[in-house]
Write the structure tokens for this entry.
Amino acid sequence: MKLLLSRFNIILGLALIMALGCKTAEEKKKAKEASFLRFHIETNVDGTQHNAPVPIYRASPILVGVERNAALDEDFMDKAELVTVDEFGNLAIKVTFTSAGTKRLDYVTSTYKGKRLAVHAKWTESRWLAAPLITKRITNGVFVFTPDASREECERIVSGLNNVIAKLKKPYTLI
């Protein structure tokens, strides 16, 4: 009886480990996906290597001159999420920044009021998603923008971005 009970416990334990520990190929793929989001300040294009005109919006692109170096990137982000912005189901990407990122976003939005903040995303493709006009100072560390992307693309961007943020948050360990 004891032998039968111990075998049952071993089989039950292995089944539990397999059920909880196994991930589907799709889940493993999503956990490895990476995407990057960079925010660039609008500037006058002066022909130097420090800035360039970039196309924003695919349907009818407008050229916006931006600084090549990003003002904000994944190092300053705490998390990203997809949010619904209206009753029609239109989506936006909401980025919450770390304390250092909040200070930097505050500086950028107060210093460059009246300029655009161009958003560049890199996932399976690389594309400029938006260039919202900075109309007010953002002090709470939350930036929401409507991207020029499909729902599936937005989901991939947010998922990959959160993977990158989580990886950046991990402490370094010495081997």
Observations:
- The mean pLDDT is 87.
- The domain at 33-169 is CATH 3.30.1360.200 (Gyrase A; domain 2).
